[in-house]
Write a structure and sequence with these properties.
mainly alpha; A middle domain of Talin 1; 14 helices; globular
Length: 343
Amino acid sequence: MRPVFALGIFIPLAFALALVGASDTLVFFSSALALIPPAAMMGRATEELAERSGNVIGGLLNVTFGNAPELIIALFAISSGLPNVVRGSLAGSIVSNILLVLGLAMLIGPDHSRFDRRSLVLQLTLVVFAVLLFLVPSVPGFHGDSKRHSLAVLTLAVSVVLLTVYIAVTVWNLRQHHAAHREEADEHAWSLKRSLVALGAATAVTALISEILVHSLDAFGHAVGLSEFFISFVIVAIVGNAAEHGGAVVIAHRGNLTLASEIAISSSAQVALFVVPAVAMLSFLVTPALPLTFRPFELIAMGGAAAGVAYAVRDGVSRRWEGGLLIAIYGGVALAAFLVGDR
């Protein structure tokens, strides 16, 4: 992993370029490269945690730390008056984790590896459940002003339900796997303290760099002629989840596809049932409040991706050609997002 960490030179470079007011295109590419080393560090720390706590708990810790920057970025975007960017990036995050990250993990990881089928299907079912609840504020938003306050109030009730379900299911899932995990930890595995410090430090660096990158996205998008929706649904979603994306791919390459798939799918479930409602509820503090009025394209993409992948992993066996197919499907979704354009 030393060549990956050599890219750490781009971390101070990204900060320097942002401070001196360099071109947004240069800032964008330097900060994107700067996100790779902390992503690799998160992948390594998660593997060490999994040695002690199991793949499910290790994956949960990875996505929790990895989604923290996305939550912060979303709140900054709301306060800057960019609700469409927030909704697009959150929907794109769910879709990219399910299709792109899982697809890459299956393609790069060992062929015919075993999944934790029960855990993955449970997480994907939660995503479908969340999408069905998103319909409650979204359908009225198809007509009239999708940013009206009444829809934000309706969103508040939906957010409470989503958070309650997520907490209940997560606690139950952790208890089940804690009881099942009786393997002894590798004597060379990192200590719990060292692993958590590495995750925290990598998350902090990711958050700072992600903010720099997001601030350069608008000008970068205009320079290359991309719509605001495409930038948020594809680019911001991938960048905002760089830690999980990179970490899952690194872990899959090292042969642990069970953990890599857990990270990809658990991240989507956490975004759908925790990050999205948390952003909506916290938006009442930064104003204007964010209604969860997703577009039909976003709802179809999220629900279709979750349902399709649940069917693909039903037998608990990974196949590389299926990974390639998931990546191709994501490419088609990204192309459709390009053609759909803004509201």
